[in-house]
């Protein structure tokens, strides 16, 4: 299993079923990701105990670093331990449920909280509480009520024990799925999920997945081995294209009731297609004005492609990945884009004018020249047929740029 997850993202304190305690785990992924700013849902992650090597699979949406944008993402502040602002969910010790803060006032010696609790507003007055350090500024999950929605790494407050802690795992104890929490006093607490939140039986999951694979392509279920455990689907086998592998992933991911899919299906290598041929086909996809990217690069080794590029923030080329994956012969794709703030890019109209003018020159026929203004210079990239075309294109851009620097990333196609 470990060889399928070569990229270590970071480490986190999680529960190890072998060590039977909270131990730091390496969290690894099948592809390169950054947890900064959150990770999209459904990404399988391998959690490896750094003490004994025991591992288990979890998914990005089960971790606190994932985007907290679903309908069950409420975190409550705990009165006396959190800074309070209007609009916050706030829990008073001993209350039946949290309330919503409407206003908050502090004087030198007292504070007043006006909050909405049901149809009427209520008010709490008490001595001023000074909070110098917040353990969890975004708030806490309240247990046991929010047990189902608690993510790994979430800070929690157990309203019955009246103690803080952190969620460190999910285990199957006998026949029940349980949330594992490490309390601040070091005690490990196992909290059973309600029946509706338990994972479906493994046999039922396998049967449903096979039916969906058969719907995707006749005979596909015979080429793919399907296993299931704790609501996770494990796929192994071989397919002829990376696009088919992604289609399988998407199809299985649409099945309701499963935690996620670990797609270990491999793409058969096409010996008739060289790495050089694949690189040229990928360059052809990237050399397209339809994709708002620049400073892009391609490397293919034994059918495994790595593509990097920069793009304007909030203008990510969503269709780029699917276009590259549809190229026959690519067995894997590692694609990474780096966002550049819009304020660091400029002169778009001039860049468009330059590219339109270059496209009219007969001397640059069968060439593709893309111009971007970034870092206070014009970046020229794309493909030309020979050195003469390259120099001609650079001189033409320099004529428009005048005193602004011009950077060269033009490729000369080998014939």
What does this molecule look like?
- With 415 residues, the protein is of the alpha+beta class.
- It has 5 domains: 2-62, no CATH class; 76-139; 208-267, Histidine-containing Protein, Chain: A, CATH 3.30.1340.30; 275-340, Histidine-containing Protein, Chain: A; 344-412, Alpha-Beta Plaits.
- It has 7 helices and 25 strands.
- Strands 5-6-7-8-9 form a 5-stranded mixed beta sheet, with no helix packed on it.
- Strand 19 and strand 20 form a beta hairpin.
- Helix 1 (202-216) packs across helix 3 (242-253).
- This is Phospholipid-binding protein.
- InterPro entries: BON_dom.
- It comes from Fibrobacter succinogenes (strain ATCC 19169 / S85).
- Residues 201-269 form the BON domain.
List the helices and strands and how they pair.
Blueprint: E1 7-16, E2 21-29, E3 44-49, E4 55-59, E5 76-78, E6 89-91, E7 99-106, E8 110-117, E9 120-127, E10 141-143, E11 155-158, E12 163-173, E13 176-183, E14 188-192, H1 202-216, H2 220-223, E15 224-229, E16 232-239, H3 242-253, E17 260-263, E18 266-267, H4 275-286, E19 293-301, E20 304-312, H5 320-325, E21 332-340, E22 345-346, H6 348-358, E23 368-374, E24 377-384, H7 387-401, E25 405-412
Parallel strand pairs: 5-6, 10-11, 16-17, 16-18, 20-21, 24-25
Antiparallel strand pairs: 1-2, 2-3, 3-4, 6-7, 7-8, 8-9, 11-12, 12-13, 13-14, 15-16, 19-20, 22-23, 23-24
Helix pairs in contact: 1-3
Domain BON: 201-269
InterPro entries: BON_dom
Protein name: Phospholipid-binding protein
